[in-house]
Amino acid sequence: MNTMRALLDSGTPLVAVSFGDDDSEQAAKEALTLGVDVAELRIDRFSRTDMGHVLEQVHAFRGLPILATVRSANEGGGWSGTEEERLELFRGVASLVDAVDVELSSHEILADVIGSAHEHGALAIVSHHNFDNTPELDELKAVVRDAKDAGADIVKVSTMATTGADVKVLASLLLDAGDTEMIVIAMGAIGTASRIFFPALGSRLTYTFIGHQPTSGQLDFAETVGLLRKFYPDYDRRRR
Questions:
Q1: Which residue from 22, 49, 58, 109 has the fewest beta carbons nearer than 10 Å?
Q2: How confident is the model at residue 213 (pLDDT cuts 50, 70, 90)?
């Protein structure tokens, strides 16, 4: 059974923490102890990406729902290899993880990554990142439609918020999502509130960090969990 899907079906907020390949055994033990909901393995930031090494890192986190991400450099990631190599990594881990995250802009491999995920019962998160600004609502709705048409199980939209109006645009995107499962994040200091309150509007996953430099606007794991427990009684009950 897909553990991440079961957690999503519970309807409570889920907290994802991103991990590289530094001392994975210890990091995985800490994540289990702290009650991390989803371990996002940022394969694009691993020190090595040969298949044997990558699979060792995946196995280190067994026991936790795993989201595998090999983020394109075009959308803020650390991947410097070819698309063919990136596709092979996605294929190599698809049977061992609960979900994969691939960018909508990865036209060359998008269909194959989604197909491989679905073949092995993993969820396909199709993502779109804009680190400069938040586009108009109609443009973002088009992104969501394209991701759904591509076969996304969950559509992720993460944009830079420079004004309160940007946060409202992203909130509107969530409110208009209908039956589309979404992860929506407003990056930047102005968008920090989105990481706590967008789950109330339907965003399925919020991202945080343990012991490393955060992405713009992120709160650390302990603070994130504390706030979610305060504002979401069902989440608090699940953590007890």
A1: 22
A2: low
Q: Which of 107, 141, 156, 168 is catalytic?
A: 156
Question: Residue 129 catalytic?
Answer: yes
Residue 212: active-site member? no
pLDDT at 216: 80
- Number of Cβ atoms within 10 Å of the Cβ of 217: 20
Cα first-last separation, the chain = 23
pLDDT digits (tens, 9 = 90+) for 14-58: 999 999 998 899 999 999 999 999 999 999 999 999 999 999 999
Residue 129 CA to residue 101 CA, distance in Å, equals 12
What's the domain range around 53? 3-239
Residue among 29, 107, 129, 212 flagged as catalytic? 129
Q: Sheet containing 38-42: give its strands across.
A: 182-187, 154-160, 123-130, 99-103, 66-69, 38-42, 14-19, 205-208
Residue 226 CB contacts under 8 Å (≥ 6 apart), including other chains? none
Domain count, the chain: 1
Return the CATH number at 12.
3.20.20.70
- What pTM value is reported for the model? 0.96
Q: pLDDT digit string (tens) for 146-158?
A: 999 999 999 999 9
**Buried b or exposed e, range 9-37, using 16+ CB within 10 angstroms:** eeebbbbbbbbbbeebeebbebbeeeebb
Gap between the Cα atoms of 80 and 45, Å rounded: 10
In angstroms, the CA 95 to CA 69 distance is: 14
